[in-house]
Write a structure and sequence with these properties.
Blueprint (H helix, E strand, L loop, with lengths): L1 E5 L8 E5 L10 E10 L2 H8 L10 E2 L3 E9 L11 E4 L2 E2 L5 H4 L10 E2 L11 E5 L3 E3 L6 H21 L7 E4 L5 H12 L3 E6 L2 H9 L4 E4 L5 H8 L5 E5 L7 H6 L1 E9 L12 H6 L3 E4 L5 H12 L7 E6 L3 H10 L5 E5 L5
Parallel strand pairs: 11-12, 11-14, 12-13, 14-15, 15-16, 17-18
Antiparallel strand pairs: 1-2, 1-4, 3-5, 3-9, 3-18, 5-6, 6-10, 7-8
Helix pairs in contact: 3-4
């Protein structure tokens, strides 16, 4: 089968579309999928460069998100059948450890992600646990089905389970170009929250306005802290979503209202941040991390997607043979929404 693979750490130059052996269905609770689309996340750029503590055997199949058609089912699978259209939750848990039994699947001691720790989705065929598959909502195109899972699940846990965002509260979301931020905007609106959105691009801010953002800030042109204080009557926001890290961390904290919450799922500009502990205890802030989500949370966002809600924004779709160009698009940070790879035309 054809797949987009990484042959060495370093960068996009080490990506290639190669013929590799097709995976075989070996476990009774797994399914074999014929893939239609795979969707990129910023994590895929980190995999290119090599992640501390994560070792791969090359060639390594890239990308974690995806959607396809069930081609074969294991003997223990009774909720899926051949021909079903499904999208993949890329977080694989053991379902046996204490965290899994408590329903905290993304805190599983053996937690792994497709494309990061495990072979990815940018291939003609993929084998995954059947419990990681969900039906594609009626009318949802393949591009959006592939782009749905990782960013929507991440944003849902960030804002609801961890961030506890409520009606009438105000949230600041940094960097609206990416999929998590866009999903967070939709979730915030669904919860009746007021949204303040930033970007360095006026074009992306205009797109955010089309998605229903309340306030738009170009963080290259304005003092975000001053503008947030002005927009909130000097109070500050209830919740900040910051996945940027070093470049925005201090400003994020200064934007918080007393007893405000900051939640993060990454550090795209750097992972080492500093915090004035005096402000932390004086204003009684909550600082929280969040990664992916549980099976229950995934079922909830799939339910909402079936109602026509939380559908992701897709930026551009590339054929599999141009997979390296898809990575270039993501790396250039010019995208608005998810970058997708079309697997179905592979030959």
């Amino acid at each position: 089968m054809k797949a987009l693979v990484l042959n060495a750490y370093g960068g996009i130059e080490h990506l290639a579309v190669d013929d590799i052996p097709q995976p075989r269905l070996m476990e009774p609770d797994h399914v074999l999928l014929r893939m239609h689309r795979a969707a990129l996340n910023h994590l895929d750029l980190w995999v290119l460069r090599g992640l501390p503590g994560v070792e791969h055997s090359f060639p390594h199949v890239m990308v974690g998100d995806g959607a396809g058609v069930v081609a074969e089912v294991g003997a223990a699978v009774d909720h899926l059948g051949v021909g079903d259209r499904v999208m993949i939750n890329p977080g694989v848990s053991c379902y046996r450890c204490d965290m899994c039994r408590a329903g905290e699947h993304s805190l599983c001691v053996r937690y792994q992600l497709l494309g990061e720790h495990l072979s990815g989705t940018a291939a003609e065929f993929v084998v995954v646990p059947a419990r990681n598959c969900a039906p594609v909502p009626e009318g949802m195109p393949w591009d959006q089905a592939a782009a749905f899972s990782l960013v929507t699940l991440t944003a849902w846990r960030l804002l609801t389970t961890r961030g506890r965002l409520g009606p009438g509260e105000t949230i600041l979301i940094w960097g609206i170009g990416g999929g998590v931020a866009q999903a967070a905007l939709q979730i915030a609106r669904l919860h009746g929250a007021r949204t303040i959105i930033t970007s360095s691009s006026d074009d992306k801010l205009a797109r955010a306005a089309e998605l229903g953002a309340d306030h738009l800030l170009n963080h290259n042109d304005v003092d975000v802290v001053k503008e947030v204080r002005r927009l909130t009557g000097k109070r500050g926001v209830d919740l900040v979503l910051d996945s940027v890290g070093e470049a925005t961390w201090e400003r994020s904290l200064r934007c918080l209202a007393p007893r405000g919450r900051l939640v993060t799922c990454g550090g795209t500009t750097g992972s080492m941040v500093s915090t004035d502990v005096r402000r932390l205890f004086w204003f009684q802030y909550d600082i929280m991390g969040s990664t992916m989500g549980s099976n229950r949370e995934y079922q909830e966002i799939v339910r909402l997607a079936a109602q026509g809600k939380l559908w992701p924004v897709v930026d551009r779709t590339f054929p599999l043979e141009e997979g390296a160009r898809a990575f270039e698009r993501l790396q250039a940070a010019d995208h608005f929404g998810k970058v997708v790879i079309d697997i179905s035309g592979a030959a």
